[in-house]
Predict the structure.
Amino acid sequence: MITEKLYYNNSYINEFSAVVLSCDACTDGFFVTLDKTAFFPEGGGQKADNGYIGDVFVKDVQEESGKILHFVDKALSVGGEYLCKLNWQQRFNRMQNHSGEHIVSGIVNSLYGYDNVGFHMEEDYVTIDFNGELTREQLDEIEDKVNYAIYKNYSINCWFPDQTELSGLDYRSKLELTENVRLVSIENTDLCACCAPHVKSTGEVGIVKILDFMRHRGGIRLVMKAGFKALLDYREKYRSVYDISNLLSAKQPEVFNAVERVYNEVDDVNRELYNFKHKVAESDKNNLIYSGNISYFISSFYDTDMMRNLVNYGMEKSSLSLAFSGEDENGYSYIAGSNSLDMKNVARSINSSLNGRGGGRDTMIQGKVSATKEQIVNYLENNEWR
């Protein structure tokens, strides 16, 4: 018995009763066939519905060899009749986004002649690939026309035309289809082959927002959201802008200028800090401690650049130069350099003696040790590789 596809009869059916025709074990549970179903199987760039058959969760739906397979965790009684419920909010969100994608693709095709050559729907966004490039200004124009079509509340109709009717229609399709072609018509906007559920009119899409675009395989990839997903995206970004405007005491339309001003101020401060640290490191060259054939310096606030500058200077005056920075409680970072010693052996000695980790190659190594300042000084003054 062939499963009746209720999602083709009415895409708004989200609760129905169905009889289990078969229930077979599979790798991660069972797959079930029903006499009828409103669960849409994965296809056409849209993921499968989920929901419940009785109290058993439907985690996936696939169509294989003409059969609609509902994948579940528990077995269901063959011949039993169950109340089935879709995750309707998820389904409706997908319908909004899929219908929104058709409107975008139809308008791009009518304005620029580009074909939709790729479509994928994630839970939070949709990507569309076109075989031609578009500018930001052109995308703004497309977005305006798409949302105008939504505001006009054009009708959306889905049907299976016979071969005679199909042969006389000019419709979009990514595949060369010859039979069982299902068309989705959006009034004054688009005609496209599609197997997925759609809303009844463009007004139900709510809004379409093109979020991003990038070059892709000689064309362009768009990232968009529609309906509730677009609303949630706006809400999240509005809250971010609201918080930033309050933090910077700037009006919301002026947030970018305020952030740019702070960014430049931070950049100036970082530049001044870098110059200051460079001067400190320069002055501390005179504070290097020389012991035998090594030189070393221990600080509580040096960063990597400062330690490296000091070690580079010390390497000119001694066989081995070392710089440590940190505190007894949390350990010390270190950098060591030499133009004559095997630095791999030096790294092994430091790490084994001072409970450290690190290494490097050629003339310089770096790492961190879990030791006190007293232990470091004692090691440096009495090390075995002097």
User: Anything to note?
Assistant: DSSP finds nine helices and 21 strands in the chain. The mean pLDDT is 95. Residues 7 and 38 are 5 Å apart (CA to CA).
